[in-house]
Amino acid sequence: MLEILYQDEYIIAINKPSGLLVHKSFYARDAKVYAIQELRNQIGGQHVYPVHRLDRKTSGVLLFALDKKVLKIMNDRFATREVEKKYLAILRGWSPEELTIDYDLTNDDSIIQNAITYFHRLQTTEIELAFNNKPTSRYCLVEAIPETGRMHQLRKHFKHIFHPILGSRPHGCNKQNKLWLEHFELKGMMLHAHQLIFNHPITNEPLILNAKINEEFSRVGTILNLDLNTYE
User: Which Gene3D superfamilies does UniProt cross-reference here (predicted)?
Assistant: First the structure.
């Protein structure tokens, strides 16, 4: 059963589990379960229309429209940046306290697109995990707010500033990912869409939707001695 965060006659939002595809994809033809179909079955067969996307390995708030009129309204609001998306990520190393990454990305059609991400660091940590001839490893928890919505934007942007998201494959640190797989059996990615802020498409009422972190994110937080109580 999917966790429903909000539902009325116009929109519905879920806390998407990590590993669940939003819909069928050429890049993941092995998948047989999709958020669209699972949610539709759960609410009695009603059609649902995803307003935005989350990567397969990204968990968190995922919003659907319940008819095409509402879908268009919300698509327009996303396009004009009237919707704010906030993500939690665990990064390798200690990032700057805050930074706006303005770095163009190239999509699958070789088209260069402007991409902007603002983030601020929430916590830093260092654990006894030998890496690159050093006895310890450093990590940090950040909140990221993408101003644009390019494919794999956060993963690519954090890799660009040499603080890749832990568990990101690709666009991550292969050596760190191997280290965490061997020591902690980590197969997931530490990226979670924890909050979506927007005005309701019909009533214009301000909405703030929050999604709790999953067990894997919480487990990694415990290993790293991060305080994640606010997000659990």
Answer: Pseudouridine synthase
